[in-house]
Design a protein that fits this description.
Strand content: 15-25%
Mean pLDDT: 88
Radius of gyration: 18 Å
Number of domains: 1
Shape: globular
Bound molecules: adenosine-5'-triphosphate
Low-confidence stretches: 239-251
Largest sheet: 6 strands, mixed
CATH class: Alpha Beta
Strand order of the largest sheet: 9-10-11-6-12-13
Number of helices: 7
Number of strands: 14
Order of helices and strands: EEEEEEHEEHEHHHEHEHEEE
Amino acid sequence: MRKEYETGGETVVALGGRSSEGDELTGIDFSVAPGEFVAIVGPSGSGKSTLLNMLGLLDEPTVGERYLLGRDVTTLDDEAQTNARKEAIGFVFQDFYLIPTLSATENVELPTIFENDPEATERARDLLRRVGLGDRLDHTPNELSGGQKQRVAIARALVNEPRVLLADEPTGNLDQDTGAQILDEFRRICETGVSVVAVTHDPQVTEFADRTVRLVDGVIRDRDADGAGSDVVDVRAGAGENARSESEADR
Ligand SMILES: Nc1ncnc2c1ncn2[C@@H]1O[C@H](COP(=O)(O)OP(=O)(O)OP(=O)(O)O)[C@@H](O)[C@H]1O
């Protein structure tokens, strides 16, 4: 997959590069397996957020293919992509993005607001209990610590039962101990088969991750052993190949 931006008549290559001879444009391949925790690292401007946006179906690649749970989502229209995103992907951010006037339960319920689901409140409460906030259900964000806010944000990301969580600097606003607790939370989530992809500058996260992918100037410079088998989200540089045959995540 390759991503270019056109700004002011110039082309910025955010993801991808050139072959060593310099005569061929290249892209990146990236995929994550069920239950895997992948950390994405790299200097400022190396393409980490762009990659997260591609994995989250928030932006279109310029060239390449994307698969979600084995399904080719490259050519879906906007509405179908939004539905695929809602069904399978949750987001966690450094700044939590909780609504200050809503309780923890209401914040977690928020993504379900248009679904009129009578069980949404109980599901939100269950999720908050799962992340250790059973005694904070009715607190508003300003009555919670940073770590507790991030737990609420994680519970909110889980409310639609996603198969992958995409996290942008999830420990960036937390002290070391609180960051470690949030990582333990992610580990428990991975144990349920949900994949986590976290963009991070935090060495604690890379130590904890199953795999670390380093981006430099839009290109993957090194990586640990590749995730094996079927992948939850998969972006590919090449064109024309059909979707993989069967994905464990489809079951
Ligand atoms: N909407 C956009 N329009 C034009 N260029 C963009 C856009 N978004 C990103 N870029 C460029 O693409 C490159 C990669 O940006 P990206 O935000 O993915 O980097 P990053 O690794 O997340 O950086 P940081 O760690 O600073 O957040 C940068 O050169 C950036 O200037």
